[in-house]
Write a structure and sequence with these properties.
It is built from seven helices and twelve strands. By secondary structure, it is of the alpha+beta class. It has a two-stranded antiparallel ribbon with strand order 1-2. A two-stranded antiparallel ribbon has the order 3-4. The termini are far apart.
Length: 184
């Protein structure tokens, strides 16, 4: 339809005529603004018939359903890795291109995704919203809390195929594996 073409052309022109009166964020299509407004109102009219989780936008429900089913229709043309969300594929592609479009205005460090920049900003603010329920230690990101919990659980999911030594983090395993190469 001509309306769809007009919206598509705005991607190329950068025109975003629809603006949120709450936060000023702009959009190429009115339907995107309507979905965005739900962030402010808290309305979540789309719900998963499997688990009951609710969403502000139908596309988020569709992506959630793909997670439930394991469907990953978006694949990287460089390495073949697959994703349930198109946005996740776009962020992944930056690993191959080296593009880091999200820069910290305080220190200049750049990141591949806005989510990574948001977590980084906590270094400057001191915010640590993720706390261990067992010892109270706090962390800037949920991934760091997940790794910390292994201190309490004793879980060591990464292991060296050469010597059988186990590790709590993949980076520790990678560092260890270099000792085998150095000793050859």
């Amino acid at each position: 339809t001509s309306g769809s073409l007009k919206i598509h052309q705005r991607i190329h022109t950068g025109e975003k005529p629809y603006s949120c009166d709450q936060c000023g964020k702009t959009f190429t299509a009115s339907r995107n603004l309507e979905a965005h407004r739900r962030i402010h109102t808290g309305e979540k009219p789309y719900s998963c018939d499997q688990c009951g989780k609710t969403f502000t936008a139908s596309r988020n429900l569709e992506a959630h359903r793909r997670i439930d089913t394991g469907e990953k229709p978006y694949s990287c043309d460089q390495c073949g890795k697959t994703f349930s969300r198109e946005g996740s594929l776009e962020a992944h592609r930056r690993i191959h291109t080296g593009e880091k479009p999200y820069g910290c205005e305080l220190c200049g460090k750049s990141f591949t995704g806005s989510d990574k920049l948001k977590i980084h900003r906590r270094v400057h603010s001191g915010e640590k919203p993720y706390s261990c329920e067992l010892c109270g230690k706090s962390f800037t990101g949920s991934d760091k809390l997940k790794i910390h919990r292994r201190v309490h659980s004793g879980e060591r999911p990464y292991w060296c195929e050469q010597c059988g030594k186990t590790f709590t983090q993949s980076g520790h395993l990678q560092r260890h594996q270099r000792t085998h190469v150095a000793s050859c």
